[in-house]
């Protein structure tokens, strides 16, 4: 157990110091790194509620949920070899962000509040992505 914790902690430290240039694509983020980023930025846990043995889902959905209320902060998944994250934004912010390359109405979500970001194929920078993660955590934390 201690080894797993230390390993996860060291991975987070590495993630914090690694520079991702989402705008220029010089370092593509993988699914594990994106999951760790959201976990690091929020008080949350990782869950796989849609991928049970009897599920018909072909997409592996990673749900990042609040520790306090168990509501979903983010859904992370890969579709057609594309790393995607669904985040909840205010309708006004979502409308503005959808003018950015790589940001779309939420995939399988309420299109007014949820937005899908193609993490490695967007003009959204890392700082803005982290801000969007924080906004989603606030909006879903109520």
From TrEMBL:
It comes from the Bacteria. Pfam families: YjbR (PF04237). InterPro entries: YjbR, YjbR-like_sf, YjbR/MT2646/Rv2570-like. Transmembrane segments: none annotated. This is MmcQ-like protein. It comes from Amylolactobacillus amylotrophicus DSM 20534.
